[in-house]
Structure formats: C-alpha cells, structure tokens
Amino acid sequence: QSALTQPPSASGSPGQSVTFSCTGTSDDVGGYGFVSWYQQFPGTAPKLLIYEVDKRPSGVPDRFSGSKSGNTASLTVSGLQTEDEANYYCASYAGRNNLVFGGGTLLTVL
Amino acid sequence: VQLVESGGGVVQPATSLRLSCAASGFTFRTSAMHWVRQAPGKGLEWLAVISYDGVHKYYADSERGRVTISRDNSKNTLYLQLNSLRTDDTAVYYCATRTFGYAAEYWGQGTLVTVSS
Fold first, then answer.
1. Distance between CA B88 and CA B81 in Å, rounded?
2. Which of B2, B44, B64 to mutate to test the interface with A (most CBs of A within 10 A)?
3. Which residues of B touch A44 (CB under 8 A)?
4. Which of A25, A31, A77, A99 has a CA 20 to 30 Å removed from the CA of B16?
5. Do A36 and B103 touch (CB under 8 A)?
C-alpha cells in the first residue's frame, strides 16, 4: 500500500486557522470512514487528535476538527497557538486489516 | 495508560531482535495493539496489528515475512520479532493501542533500533 499524500509544510499566524490535506485513493481514504490524525512534537511519541474522520478523543480541544471529501481528508486547526507547532500525520484504514500513514506536514506558527 | 517499549539497541545487519512493550493502566487482554516505526527524520510507518487474543495478526506488505507480532496476555506484554535486519530498519519502534476506526490511541515512548555494521 502506498503512503497517503500530505504537503510537507504549512504555516499560519496565531489566531488564524490552517487546514492540512491528506490525499489517498478509493482503496483507503475514499473507501472507508477510518481516517485518523496525529500530532507529534520532536523527540516525542505521536498523539491521537482525530479518529474516524471527525471524532475527537477525550481531552483534545475542539480547535481541532476533521473532515473528508472523496479521497481527501482534512484536519483544521482553528485559533492557532504557538504550541501547535508540530508535525501532523494522517492515517487511514486501507483494507485487508492494514493501516497506512501520510508523510506528515510540519506546521510553523509564525 | 502506560506503554513501555524495550529491547532496542545497536545490532548488526542480518541479525534478529525482539522488542517488547509492557502495558499497564488498562485492560491489556481486551485491547488490540499496533506496532509503528519511524526512521530518523522520516514519517510514521505502520508495521503490524494483533487482535486482543493474539489469534489474528496482520502485517504491512513491505515487512511481511520479516516481522512477527505476538503477545502474552498473562504478562501484559506485546512483542515484535524483527529478522534479517537491514540498515533501513533503523528507526524508533512504537507500540500503540488500537481504537475505533483502526486508529492508534495510546503510544509508548518508543525504542530505538540502530542497524549498523
């Protein structure tokens, strides 16, 4: 299975909103409602932000929201804060009990 | 929830290694588990998943045949056997709990495997 496609970088100013894209195929993102998003700071383990496209685990601020249209999933971070500067990865169920990740997007908060 | 990986280190190419993931703070025996790795400076790569009872095991196509996932529910421990190690297996290896939608919910801190001669 091929990795999902994410832009390598994104940026925004404090208080703004930024949206990350995650493009797959009908075999993964488009075929299932099982997209998840992760936040990772350098040197630390990833943290689950979104699962099943748009659900937030307990404790994740509602500034983080997910959506999907066709073969592309999106993560929107509203009210950007400097502490949101991190890498963001998407993942999708890809059938046959496989999971596939995207290459990640590095968010810079200017 | 606490997941603690161990067993990493510096190993030579073509050798084998078994990683462990000790779980606590939740009911391990009812949780499916993932292994995910991350090469230095690179993204996340899913490796394998195992059902709560260890009966069902699934692997990434790229690693099938070289890695084996297993668990011992009596010891609250997950394992990953890595065989025929190559330099491009150098990575931090994470275990994680599997939640709804196949997502990885809780993650360990990772264990670094360095394959080098």
1. 16
2. B44
3. 109
4. A99
5. yes
